[in-house]
């Protein structure tokens, strides 16, 4: 953890270093991933079977390529009641929030007599990557699958590695609840390649979303353009702005809730009170010792954590904007006033009773958010990521007469005479 | 040009070949572009100056890095009245169409007492690539710049190569009309790198859009994630569906208006009348001989053109969907009925008096559209490409009490105890 104050002589440089710290490994995965994609395109199922044997230590022909819908339903039915209720609450609230994102079509006739508009439709098929092992989160499955289903996607195929053939039953339960149509026991870059290009029994999809390790992220980047993808995702981060009126234990838990995800995550506290900063730092240390995820969270906090003391809370605004954080939690007296001045953040948590974790599960907004300063230009996952817009135009002869001469003039000026001719012929104009 | 009929014995295979024909060169530009980006990141302005000297044969220190706003205004003022009126009509209609795309914010309190919503803001800065040489189209500049300005982007930087120091005055006039803030005399992959990472006097932007050659397209792909980009664009295409009631000359001109763009473009006609197909083929040949762009259009038509005879117009619907064309023109008796069944197209032109060219210039919808079957998942350029959405949440203690227990249950089930603790502490729950 680093401790900074805006009054430090070297603050500007040290803060810039914090902003520019990418925490993203691109350690030669590009070539590996390109080779994996090429092998799946060339050898199809055989490549998937070999790579699964190598990385997940099971034979797809023996364990089965797919997990049946009946198995997903059985996992859901076997949930203990408390978890089942929690998962259902989450799904219902996520669905309600995303239903409001459905875009409206437009269709109107303007004063020139031109009918023009736009029509939205879902993609035919979407693929969702669900990590195996430690990061096999049913909440992530809901956050990816439900927007696709709300969009109206007809075929939703999930891929997930099952190391040694094992899979988290909670993930299967969530797949049932979200209405996933196919569950394939394939992971890694090879699974992304199979979704993008198709491989034997796995038909290709149009959009691929979902979190994964560096290989999965790079594979999504490499197939972008062949299919749509949600975003280039990196390590997670939280910025907490808190004054001395907070309970330091609450603030410490908020910072650690990010740190426990992965050793690459970043937790940053801004406060206007140095004594409060000390108390939070001490509380973080104390809580870490009792945390089951200490091994991960302590590395993340030590390597990437930061506490920054500012003179006034308003001084934090431009600094927060430069960080363009995935999560921004405002535990201050006037969170809305602060938010009004922030331009860049993935998701904002307003007030002392809105811990970031509430947004990870049940609140409703999507928890798939832009990381690594990408909130400057990117948005969280939404229904729009699973839809596409077709614009349309209809002119009659009178409308074409209104717009035709300008079109002919511009087409000729651009040196495109066939463009001009296609209009001029219809209007019997010189061109 | 190939001629197919759905009754051909080998129709399925030949149509699939047409669908899968990518027409995209990836002839080793990947490594070239990576090297150019690395050199711009390392050497900044010096790299730009060297590469400009090499490719565009002028010295930026002598010709000037930027073109002044005054020069753009002078170019606009010097336009002949007909062109000036045409450009102004185009800009006004493009602006009007895109103003309707501005997204609405949401902000509401639900039955659990949770305030939740989403806020849209423009990115701080956008960069537009404008090609030099033959494809220096003022219309493309308007189609890229106006949505950015409608979104509210504060800084709009344009890059364009000026071979031998020369630039098309129409492009400068369009830059003035669209309100471009900076015009840089830099092109190629190096210009994209400068916009993404910054290079000396060129400050970095958040989003890069605009057409370019294979190097520019690959550079955008490589910087995707560092900045947002509009899309991975490929060669242009048109599908025309026309019955025998059309004037074959009109249909021929429609096909050629695509073919004249570039030797890689694809023009495809579907018709239910073989005699009409013959007449169009003859008209294309005749028109080609008189076309100033014959050299390009003939190569494109010969290499990539197709005429496909179907039994009934309805038979064309699934074929059209598989092509997922950038442009779809429906010169048939019931264009709306056909369009109702089409799922995939970038932009649709309904009826005999709606030639595609009208959409290239003045109609209003964007002419930057998904190519190469990407209309399956991608949309035309819009105001949304220059904006991003921040979701937000606000809970009070009562609302947290509603959602807290489910969050604690799910966080514990996912093995994330600090997540659970951040909620449980606030509610004095066991966790």
TrEMBL record, chains A, B:
SUPFAM superfamilies per the UniProt record, alphabetical: ALDH-like
Binding site for substrate: 236, 258, 261, 327, 360, 414, 419
An MF annotation (GO) of this entry: NAD binding
Cofactors required: Zn(2+)
Domain of life assignment: Bacteria
One family name in Pfam for this protein: Histidinol_dh
Gene3D superfamilies from the UniProt entry: 1.20.5.1300, Nitrogenase molybdenum iron protein domain
EC number(s) given by UniProt: 1.1.1.23
Keyword NAD: yes
Cofactor note: Binds 1 zinc ion per subunit.
Keywords of this entry: Amino-acid biosynthesis, Histidine biosynthesis, Metal-binding, NAD, Oxidoreductase, Zinc
A biological process term (GO) from this entry: L-histidine biosynthetic process
Active site: 326-327
Gene Ontology cellular component list: cytosol
Function, in words: Catalyzes the sequential NAD-dependent oxidations of L-histidinol to L-histidinaldehyde and then to L-histidine.
Family as reported in the entry's similarity comment: Belongs to the histidinol dehydrogenase family.
Annotated protein name in UniProt: Histidinol dehydrogenase
Origin species: Sphingomonas aerolata
């Amino acid at each position: 953890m680093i401790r900074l104050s805006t009054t430090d002589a070297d603050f500007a440089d040290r803060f810039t270093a914090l902003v520019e710290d990418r925490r993203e490994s691109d350690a030669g995965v590009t070539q590996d991933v390109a080779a994996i994609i090429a092998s799946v395109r060339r050898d199809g199922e055989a490549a998937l079977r070999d790579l699964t044997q190598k990385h997940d230590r099971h034979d797809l022909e023996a364990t089965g390529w797919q997990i049946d819908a009946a198995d997903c339903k059985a996992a859901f039915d076997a949930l203990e009641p408390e978890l089942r209720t929690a998962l259902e609450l989450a799904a219902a609230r996520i669905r309600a929030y995303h239903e409001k994102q459905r875009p409206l079509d437009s269709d109107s006739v303007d004063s020139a007599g031109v009918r023009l508009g736009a029509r939205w439709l879902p993609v035919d098929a979407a693929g969702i990557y669900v990590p195996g092992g430690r990061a096999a989160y049913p909440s992530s499955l809901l956050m990816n699958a439900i927007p696709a289903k709300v969009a109206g996607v007809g075929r939703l195929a999930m891929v997930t590695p099952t190391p040694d053939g094992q899979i988290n039953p909670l993930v299967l339960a969530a797949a049932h609840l979200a209405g996933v149509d196919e569950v394939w026991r394939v992971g890694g870059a090879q699974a992304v390649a199979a979704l993008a290009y198709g491989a034997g029994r796995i038909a290709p999809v149009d959009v691929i979303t979902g979190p994964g390790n560096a290989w999965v992220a790079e594979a999504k980047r490499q197939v972008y353009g062949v299919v749509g993808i949600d975003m280039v995702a990196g390590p997670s981060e939280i910025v907490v702005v808190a004054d001395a009126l907070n309970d330091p234990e609450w603030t410490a838990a908020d910072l650690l809730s990010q740190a426990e995800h992965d050793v690459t995550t970043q937790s940053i506290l801004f406060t206007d009170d140095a004594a409060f900063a000390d108390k939070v730092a001490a509380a973080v240390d104390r809580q870490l010792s009792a945390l089951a995820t200490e091994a991960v969270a302590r590395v993340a906090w030590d390597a990437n954590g930061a506490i920054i003391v500012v003179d006034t809370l308003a001084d934090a605004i431009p600094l927060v904007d430069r960080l363009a954080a995935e999560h921004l939690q405002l535990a201050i007296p006037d969170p809305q006033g602060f938010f009004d001045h922030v331009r860049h953040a993935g998701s904002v948590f307003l007030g002392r009773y809105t811990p970031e974790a509430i947004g990870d599960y049940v609140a409703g907004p999507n928890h798939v958010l832009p990381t690594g300063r990408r909130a400057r230009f990117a948005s969280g996952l939404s229904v729009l990521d699973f839809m596409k817009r077709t614009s349309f135009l209809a002119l009659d002869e009178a409308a074409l007469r209104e717009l035709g001469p300008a079109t002919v003039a511009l087409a000729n000026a651009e040196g495109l005479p066939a463009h001009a001719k296609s209009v001029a012929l219809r209007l019997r104009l010189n061109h």
